Structures are given as structure tokens and as C-alpha cells.
Automatic annotation (TrEMBL):
Domain Endonuclease GajA/Old nuclease/RecF-like AAA: 1-82, 313-362
InterPro entries for this protein: AAA_GajA/Old/RecF-like (IPR041685), Bact_Antivir_Def_Nuclease (IPR051396), P-loop_NTPase (IPR027417), TOPRIM_OLD (IPR034139)
A Pfam family annotated for this UniProt entry: AAA_15
Protein name per UniProt: AAA family ATPase
Stretches assigned to the OLD protein-like TOPRIM domain: 474-543
Region described as Disordered: spans on this chain: 371-412
Species the sequence originates in: Azospirillum aestuarii
Amino acid sequence: MHLAELHLENFRLFARLAITLRPGLNVLVGENDAGKSAIIDAVRLVVGAAGHDTARIDADRDFHWRNDQLEPEARLSITCKFAGISEADASGFIEHLTYEGTPEAPQAPVLYLTLVAHRPTRAVSVKVKHASRWRVSVELRSGKDGQGPWFEGPARALLEATYLKPLRDAERELSSGRNSRLSQILRHTLAIAAEDDEAFDVDAFVNALGSGDSNVSLPQTLLRRGELADHLIETHSGVSKARARLNEDFLHHLALGSDRMSSHIGVACGADEMRLRLLLEKLELLLLPSAPPAADAESSCAATARRPRLLPRGLGYQNLLFMACELLLLGQDEEKMPLLLIEEPEAHLHPQLQLRLIDFLLSRTEPGLRSAAGVRKEEPAADPEPTDSDRNIGKVAPSGTGNGAARPDTRSERPVQVLMSTHSPVLASKLPLGSLIVLAGGQGFSLAEGRTRLDAGDYRFLQRFLDATKANLFFARGVIIVEGSAEALLLPTIASLLGIDLAKHGVSIVNVGGTGLHRYARILMRSDDAPGPCPVACVTDRDVLPDCARDILNLKPGSRQKTEPQIDAEAWMKTKVKADGQRVKTFVSDHWTLEYDLARAGLEREVFIAGRMAAHDNELDGPGDMAGAAWTVREAEAEQAYKRLQEGCPDPIERAVRVYKVVAAGSKAAAAQILARMLEERYGTAAERLVFAGKVPRYLSAALRHATGTDQPMPVVRAEALADE
């Protein structure tokens, strides 16, 4: 049984939302305030969640507030649809199930649950005075239309999910104390919950032990071992003497007449259920130190058997321990739906531990990925070796024999459904692409197969090459996809000089390295042609050489690079923009490549000097004043070389090709980095930036406008204006 669909209406920032969930791993990604926590809280409100935190409808923040309204909506609804219901699951929800389809061909049963909440409007609040002004009425019903029986009591308890809140205090959750989360988990794990009661006479056991009976053995159940521990504490000489003194020296002298007052000092426990709860609440879960060297292994094991060393561990490891503990119960409890709601699992984890965590979660949520995640099927645990304390008290009875033995665990762990939110590109890059749900603009965009324009080959390709630096596109308000390092390094500087702050607009630049640009573009395209979550600008070269380039670059006659006369311009452009549609748009260079187009647009001098200086990049990276001196010398040499180029090559097209040749002879990335620095220094004033705007190739400025959603055209000033100043 799993949560298959979630529908929200007027809940927080969502006026209306419908998302489909997979049986395994579902990951909500998106920028802050996109609604990730709202979705998880909506599920908590319907199914409830184990732990100390209870979700309740809040009149101030849970009702959707439209921009044109003076107060929030008066009604909200949350509908959950559960599918994959087995016969065992159905037995707990008989009166609430819905059989879709027709009477002649009914489908498998599903469970619809709808929570509806009403808040008083301003007019109603005045009538009923202030006492109930913010009182919210809530009802939870089953049925496809939300008009079925009320859903409460034992049935709702069967749906209870496990919730791990963001920035959780894992250390506190795993410590001992009343109603501790650890005690709740242990009470329901199979190894403890499945224990049969056993006949045990604690007095007879102690007497037999004192008489040297060789056949005496320790009780097997946790409950009876606790009873033995209580007896040993109560009969301790110090406790016995205190009790005797209290009775004989105080209470005896306070009694009236023939009354006899006496007391008993014992461990507070009550009934067996209370005794077990109190025992478990004394336990805490700790991380042991790392494995000791081989030489110290024997002594360390002996010390650990008595009492583990209490070493302080960081928040990250405590967090992992807490999640492992929760999953221990979640996969075993057949009576409850194995649903884990987790916010920010990456909290306090460095990237390598984040990757280990995802492998672990995949092994518990996606059975088909168990082997890929490197998780082997666990063998039954061997019988524990007796500890020193066991040997001192009595023998350990063989496991699985005699009264009180725990029933063997013949049940394998069930796959767990996980709904989690994350801000980590590291996690997003490691996850199956189809498990992601991108939230933006009050909508949810599933990346599951069939929901995007990606085909099966695209999913395989992206799963191999979508790394953490590229995965930041899932958290952006706008995306610019480029094919090389030069564009990735230059575009932020160009945007800044044009008065566009990419960070302020939430734009991510994704460098795909010349491979699969159109595959990445289709990630955020929808199969139903609905607009995607954000604008995507794909920046690519035209890759058509000027006629003179073959001779200047000494290209062989059989070269695959084409010139203008060799191509059908219209057909060529169609292949370049084949990924266009919805909010994805491709921007093809005006002429040939980035460097050539920059030179043609008016930045010929800067590109040439940057290319020449990139050849001496190692010198320019020197320390202190030597770096400045080297820069000055090389810049002067490059200036002279550029003047010679101007004098010897009057044709601007041929000159731009020769500028490109200088850049291509070295490192394009180094040239781009140097060019960015030069542009920042050269065009520092407002007037100079107006001139610079006229030198930016049109396709670059158009791509920036599209990705940032700025529709106004860039200011255009002729390049000659700089010379006139």
C-alpha cells in the first residue's frame, strides 16, 4: 500500500495542486518557498505521524491567500489517494474503500481520504464574538468525493507515517527518557513485540542460583529479564537496610495503637506493559567509536561488552543513526503503512555521506536497485555470545527453545515509500531522475517517464552525466545551458555589465560540455505541452565557417566543418532549435562561434589580447608584484600584435577569423577568464557600459533576457561612441 496521488486546494501557497507519487522514492526539489514543506505537512495532516510533533491546521498560515483578497480563503481541502492495497491492508479499511471502474469490471480497491477545513470569515467572526474567531473546523472523510464515512480511530492509526522534521535534534530523539522515540521504536520492532510470555519465578531462580544448581538459566524475554533486574535491585543489601530502618526506627514509632505501619521500597513498574515501557525508556542509542586497530580488537571488544565508551559524535552521524533506527521499524511493522516523510535528509552531512545515504534509501525503497546500491540481503543474526554478566548470573538458554523464546523473524523487510524534500544538488544528481518532482510557481512537475519530453535513452544518458554542478538546474528560477567553459565563465560578466544580476534572478548556468545539450533542455519540458517550471535558454554555436576560414585555419579538404555555401541554412537552423518549445528556447550564435561572434560584434581587440595572454597563463598566475609586472608586459606585447593585425588585415571578417585562431591555439577557458577580467576593468562606468551593450552579440543578450524573464531590450549604442568620448 502506498500514497499514489495528492491533491491540494487552497492550502498555503497552493491554490490548486495535483501530483502523482511512485511507490518508492519521491523527492521534492525547488527553491526556497516553493512548497516542499507544505506538501509534506499536508500528508501529515491526513495520515498523522509518529513522534512528538502533531500537525494541526493553523488559521493564520494554512489557508491560501490570493493577492487580491483582504483575508485568506475560508475553505481548504487535502485529498490523498492510496493504491496497491493488499488483502491484509484492506481488512482495516473495509468500509472506506472505493472500487473504481464499472460493476462488471471493477478495478483493484483504492482508498481516498479528504481533509476539509473551514475558517470563519471576517463577517462570521464578528457575529460569534472573539471567543471563536480563529476556531477552525476540520473533518476527515473517505470516499472519492470526500462524502464517505468519517475516518478516525483504529483505521487512521494504521496509516500513521514516520516523520523526520528538518534540522532534527537526532541526539535528543535517541536519548533515554519518558516517551523517548527510541523506546517507541523498540517496542514495535519484531524482535521485542513478537516475544511470547514465559513462566518465570524470580525467587526460585535466585534460590537455585544460590544453591549452585547447574541447570539454572537466564530468562529469555526482555520483560522477565527486567523483572529479575528489579528483584536484584530491591533485594540489594543497601536497599534492604534502608527499608528495615525506615520500618523499625520510624514507622513503627508513628503507628497508633495496634496498627502496624510498614513500607516496601521497589522499582516502580506496575503491570507488564508498564514494566516493558519503563525498561525501554532507560535505553539510549549511541554510536561506537570507529573500529580499533587489530592489536587492540580483543581488549576493545571486551570493554564494549561491558559498557561502550561515550564519545561525542557530530550532528551528521547522529542524524544517520536516527534515520537508520526509524527505518528499522518502518520496514518491519506490517500493521502500518511504510511511509517515511523526511525533510532535508542532507542536514549536517558532507557530500560523501549524502551519497551513502541515498544508496541506503534506494536499497529500502526501490527493490530493483538493491544490487545496484550494493546492499546484500541480510542473513539471520547468529545467537549472541554470553557476556560476563550472563556467566556470573546463570546460563543462557538456547535461542528459539523453551518458554519465552522470541518467534523467529521469517518476514523480510518491506520496501518503504519515501517522500522527502532536499536543497542538495549532490543528492539530486545521484537520485533516479524519475523520482524528482520540481516545485515552482505553485505547481509540481514530475520528472517521471511519460511526464517529460525525455525518452528512455535520454534518461539513461542523464543518469550517467547529470552531476552535482548540473543538478542545480532543479533549484533555479531560470536556466542557461551552454556547451563550453568559455560561455560559462563569460556570461555572468556579460550579464553584470548589461545590468543583469543572474544571482538576483535565481538563474543557473549549466555547462554540458558540448554533449547532450538538447537532452538537458528536454528535462524541464512537459509531455502534455504545459509550460515547464522555469525558462530555459540553450546557447549554442552556429558552427558554420566563413569562406576564408578554411585557408586561415589550414583545414583539410575533408573537414566536417561546413561553410555557408555548403549548407541549407533553413534546414541547418531547424536542427539547432529542435529542442525548442514551451519555455525552452535555443539561441544560436549570430555567425560561427562565441569568440568569433564577440570579435565581429565589436570586442575584437579584447578577445585578441585575451587569447594572446592566455598562452602565458602560467606567468600571469605568479605571486605578488611579479604577477602584475608580467601582466603589464604581456598586455603591451599583445597590444602591439593587435595593431599589426589591424594594419595587415583590413577585412573585418578575415580579421575576426584570425582573432579566433589566436584563442583556439591556447586554452579557451583561460582566454575567457582573462577576457572577463578585462571587460570588468574596461567598461566600469555607466557610459562605458552603454557602449558595451552595443558590442554584445544579439543571441547572448536575447538568451539572458529569456532566462531572467526581462522583456525589455538591451540598450544599444554604436561601438564608435567610445572613440568619440
